[in-house]
Automatic annotation (TrEMBL):
Entry keyword Secreted: no
Residues making up the signal peptide according to the UniProt record: none
Record-given protein name: L-threonine 3-dehydrogenase
Family of the protein in this entry: Belongs to the zinc-containing alcohol dehydrogenase family.
The species this protein was found in: Lacticaseibacillus camelliae DSM 22697 = JCM 13995
Pfam families reported in the protein's UniProt record: ADH_N (PF08240), ADH_zinc_N (PF00107)
Cofactor: Zn(2+)
Record's keyword terms, sorted: Metal-binding, Oxidoreductase, Zinc
Enoyl reductase (ER) domain mapped to chain residues: 7-329
Family annotation (InterPro entries): ADH-like_C, ADH-like_N, ADH_Zn_CS, ER, GroES-like_sf, NAD(P)-bd_dom_sf, Zn_alcohol_dh
GO molecular function terms noted in the UniProt entry: oxidoreductase activity; zinc ion binding
Domain of life: Bacteria
Record keyword Zinc present: yes
Length: 332
């Protein structure tokens, strides 16, 4: 089979690989689509994602496909089923797994990060992380359920009320997902801030955004109950804290550089009684994410900007392709 292998930091090769065999509790998936995201950019450049990727490894942790084979103990899917895969695999035995916080697992492994993923014609995954994909969801959209689930997990960490006024900072793919998901969870007003006018206008037109702000020229109001930071840069993290009213919640979702820091006024945190919440990966969020996509409450089709072949992936990860909002790879 063909696979795109990360052979070293900043180096990928299309190789002929052996088709993997399944263990008793595993599923063999014939990949249809694999998504490319910021984590893949980090792994390509030698930075950690949810875990460290050690070359040689096949990336691709956002996947959809068809079940090609199942292990002897698998009962939740069968050959021929359309599926999507939660890449994150928890040990079930560490302190965090045993206290209901598996996303913090000390022994986290992940399809497309620590084991071969969807940038190959076939990959395997434990049956416990393989989910049937409804016929109403295309394979292309199905490859976005993993990022949807990460946003859903972040939203589920917040205390949401219909009266809340929310601001999403960051007009990348994840920020645009948060716009829709916050509304799906009942927030009555969602505003949107970013740096690309076309994306701001698209979300105002299609997704019921009330106010938009271009942060290169606009000053953000400071009257939000909920602020989602979906960029991961110190300047936008500071903007997120400054955009709050008293009693607000700030979700720090954007993945910053491991060495980056931002400044906060500690008295303001105290005086406003702010909650600053981190969010890591996506535990127990796939079923909700599939339902949001199947119901139409989340629509990813207008947000997918590029459909790639395997040989077009590396230039995207190198930053040589302009205007990428969300890229997916047609593998099968």
């Amino acid at each position: 089979m063909k696979g795109l292998v990360l052979t070293a930091v900043k180096k990928m090769e299309i190789q002929d690989l052996p088709k993997p065999s399944v263990l008793p509790n595993e599923v063999l998936v014939q990949t249809k689509y694999a998504g490319i995201c910021g984590t893949d950019h980090a792994l390509y450049n030698g930075l950690p994602g949810s875990a460290k990727a050690v070359p040689p490894i096949v990336l691709g942790h956002e996947n959809s496909g068809v079940v090609a084979a199942v292990g002897a103990n698998v009962t939740n899917v069968k050959v021929g089923d359309r599926v999507t895969v939660d890449p994150n695999i928890y040990c079930g035995q560490c302190y965090y797994c045993r206290t209901g916080r598996p996303e913090l697992c000390d022994h986290l492994s992940a399809v497309g990060v620590t084991r071969n993923g969807g940038l190959a014609e076939y990959f395997t995954a434990p049956a416990s992380v393989v989910y049937e994909l409804p016929d109403s969801i295309s394979f292309k959209a199905g490859a976005t359920i993993e990022p949807i689930s990460c946003a859903v997990h972040g939203v589920q960490l917040l205390h949401l009320t219909p009266y809340a006024k929310a601001l999403v900072i960051g007009d990348g793919f994840m920020g645009q997902l948060f716009v829709q998901i916050l509304q799906a969870y009942g927030v009555h007003q969602v505003d949107f801030a970013g740096i690309i006018d076309d994306k701001l206008a698209l979300n105002k037109k299609l997704f019921n955004v009330k106010n938009t702000y271009n942060t290169t020229r606009d000053t953000l109001p400071s009257d939000y109950d909920i602020v989602v930071e979906a960029v991961g840069k110190p300047e936008t993290q500071e903007q997120a804290v400054n955009a709050t009213r008293k009693g607000a919640q700030v979700l720090m979702f954007g993945v910053g550089h491991p060495d980056a820091h931002f400044q906060m006024n500690t008295y303001e945190i105290y005086q406003k009684q702010l909650t600053i919440q981190g969010s890591f990966i996506n535990p127990h969020a796939f079923e909700d994410s599939i339902a949001l996509l199947a119901s139409g409450k989340v629509n990813v089709d207008p947000l997918i900007s590029h459909e790639l072949e395997l040989n077009q992936v590396e230039p995207v990860l190198q930053g040589k392709v302009a205007g990428v909002s969300k890229a997916v790879v047609k593998v099968g």
